[in-house]
Amino acid sequence: MKFAWTKKNIILISASGVLAVLLAVLTVIFIIKLGKNKVNELNSSYLSSALSQQISSEQDLETGLVITSPVSLDSTVTTSKTVITGTSDIAFPLLMNGVNVERSSDGSFAIDVELNKGANVFTFEHKGVTTVCKINYRYVVINSYSPSKQEKYPSGSTFVVSVMARVGSSVNATFNGTTITLKQTEKADEKEFINFTGSFTLTDKNDTDINLGKVKFTGVCNGITEVFYSGNIVCLKNEILAGKTYVAEVVAFTAETFNGNTSDDFSDPRNNYLPQGTVDYCDSGLVYDPSSKNTFIKLRCGRRVYVDKPTDDKKSRIAVTTRYKGTLPDHNEISVASFAQSGRHTVIKFDTMWKAPFLLDIYPQSYNNPSIQDFSFSNATFNYVDITFCYATKFTGEIIIPASNPIFSKAEIIPSGDKHILRLHLKSQGKFYGWDSYYNSDNQLCFEFLNPVNTKLSSNAYGVDLTGAKILIDAGHGGRDPGAVRGSVEEEERNLSLARKIKAELESIGATVIMTRTGDYTVTSDERRLFMKNQRPDYCIAIHHNAASVASPNGFEGYHFNAFSRAAAKMVHDRTMSTGIYNKSKFQSHYFFLSRITTCPVVLTENGYFTNTYDFNNIVNESLNTTKAKAIVRGIADYFISIQYTPIIESEPEPPLQEPELPSQKPELPDVSAPVTSSEDKKTF
Fold it and tell me: What is the Cα–Cα distance from 355 to 544, expressed in whole angstroms?
């Protein structure tokens, strides 16, 4: 999903002026055929790279062989494994170093190659013509580092240093007389290079700008040492007026929070989102992550929030939080305004003195290894929800949970120093379905908890009648973002095709199904999130197909982020793998954007790899895609069966939301591309 395999034909010319003219004509034809917003891909750097190839355009036309990766027939890489991809005439054999090349039905191929240090030569034979591809493997310890250029930071700020280094390396950074050891922050899996990070904090006592020099990065692996330097780091003078304090305010419709004791950009399911309007005191300095280009504000409550975030195309940024000099009340007061359960949701409203931050998590739940972003676990052990109201020294009112409530059994208020904790005990261990928060028109803080749908068992093929269940299907990519591409096949179309099959199956057993897109148009990450927030579904499944930098990775992958989404994701994974279509699978937690949404359980699926020939042949097989869709729906049905309950008292149904079917053109969605003054979301990458 992250690796986009794009169409880049190798265009080459001879010295002949006639052939140059021919190339220009062919290029125009190629651009016209691309269509669908692909013209922008043929920029000047692309043409310059294409013109550098060492094979004539005549040979390209005659042989039918086009090598798309590497982009140069004489290239250099820093990994011991790489992939050679391209297209050929399927009617004729294709050999590489005398061995037949496995190809898909359209003649495309992807070949994993093991490299020796130095030059590696691969000779292709096709239609009587020989093409030579040379790949030079340069062994390095450090593949990249950040910051790399000169940076200027306000006094008191913290900046992250990160190094992409070979697995097994020892990495440290030295700055302004201090040396720190950088810590591995991700699982190695089958990677050759992984991320190592650390941070430095600047002084806040300087009344002039100070050039503190460069950061020295040192990496050691297998007896080899490499050293690199950043540009100069400048600490700007402290301009804060004496006695003044900074206040941060969430201006987006929601803001993801991060651990304030760290300086990384890693999403954590134990940290909650804060609604628009939330305010808190914050540090005078900021936290910078040069590798992601993101800046954070650290709140007094111990969490960090984004200052702004990039749009999907990375061309602009959207305001998340604003910061200004000001003061806030020295405490907060909370009182219970109402408790209501109306059909699909349980809603608790609070009157507050001011819009202070809160912390929300489900307990007790342990995870495999949070230090390397591994939030997987085997068993759901959580049985209560804690909402910590920061600075709330006074809490009035009582919450009485009726026996008919399908989620909670009781509530208790726990005083804790300068805050109060609302503990909501679950009726059953691990049975929690999603939540959201917002300030309403009366400035009340509202928590909305998703009730389970009371579906009925059925004799249909899926064993359940999903009447009353509202399911959102997110077909990934679309429009200017095609996703992975192989030959003429684009991921966005394959995602949508599979999503439509799933939709038809779900509707056949009574479900109400909505989709984030129903055609080939662009829907941004924020638009998807806001659509989901407004529609408030009972379940969400995201449909993607994968791609990799090598050809060997293959199989189905099921992901979740929040602990309460795990069961739903596992059921889809298990049903899918029971089909026997895939050779292997992966099931784990991951911080993919849509997966982080807390409104309902979210399952993200990667339905095979474009870059693997076996998977790709299955991806374009409509009969197998129908089988895949039915397996996914069986997994969804299993989930709804697993959360069935017997209501004690029938409650009045919640008024339905307006749910017009989305047209085949891009729907009219709220504008979230510009800074807002009263509503938002988070990380689009």
Answer: 38
User: Is 661 within a domain?
Assistant: no
Whether 84 and 117 map to the same domain: the answer is yes
Positive or negative torsion for Cα 308, 310, 312, 313: positive
> What's the pLDDT band for 9 if we cut at 50, 70, 90?
very low
Of 129, 413, 200, 157, residue with least CA distance to 295: 157
Position 678 in a domain: no
Per-residue pLDDT tens digits for 607-647: 999 999 999 999 999 999 999 999 999 999 999 999 988 77
Residues 441-468: b if buried by 16+ CB within 10 A, e if exposed: eeebbbbbbbbbbbbeebeeebebbbeb
Residue 677 lies in a domain: no
342 confidence band (pLDDT: 50, 70, 90): confident
Task: List Cβ neighbours of 204 (8 Å cut-off, separation of 6 or more).
Answer: 155, 156, 238, 284, 285
Confidence of residue 190 (pLDDT cuts 50, 70, 90): confident
Handedness of CA 367, 369, 371, 374 (dihedral sign): negative
Same-domain status, 114 and 185: no
Which domain, by its residues, includes 443? 332-450
The domain total for the chain is 5
For 328, the token pair is: 């806030």
Q: How far is CA 258 from CA 501, 651, 681, in A?
A: 38, 38, 14
Distance of CA 26 to the CA centre of its chain: 38
Residue that finishes a domain, picked among 112, 136, 160:
136
The C-alpha atoms of residue 543 and residue 558 are separated, in whole angstroms, by 10
Please check whether residues 340 and 292 belong to one and the same domain.
no
Closest CA to 248 of 316, 295, 202, 290: 295
* Closest by Cα among 600, 605, 604 to 643: 600
Q: Give the pairing type, strands 419-426 and 384-389.
A: antiparallel
Q: At residue 653, does pLDDT exceed 70?
A: no
Determine the Cα angle at 583 with ends 501 and 619, to 5°.
35
Residue 663 buriedness (CB in 10 A; 0-12 / 13-18 / 19+): exposed
Q: Indicate the residue type of 476.
A: G
Euclidean distance between the first and the last CA atom of the chain, given in angstroms as a whole number: 11
Q: What are phi and psi of 582, to 5 degrees?
A: -100, 145
pLDDT range class, residue 188, cuts 50, 70, 90:
confident
Asked if 263 contacts 285 with a C-beta cutoff of 8 angstroms, the reply is no
Edge-to-edge order in the sheet of strand 74-77: 74-77, 129-137, 118-126, 94-96, 99-100
Rounded Cα distance between 658 and 208, Å, is 58
Mark whether 94 and 196 lie in a shared domain.
Answer: no
Helix, strand, coil percentages (3-state) for the chain, rounded to 5, are 15, 35, 45
Residue 409 sits at φ, ψ, to 5 deg, of -100, -35
Can you tell me which residue has the tokens 């991809």? 85
Spatial separation of the C-alpha atoms in residues 634 and 502, rounded to whole Å: 10
Q: How many Å apart are CA 251 and CA 318, to the nearest integer?
A: 10
Q: Is the peptide bond before 660 cis (omega within 30 degrees of 0)?
A: no
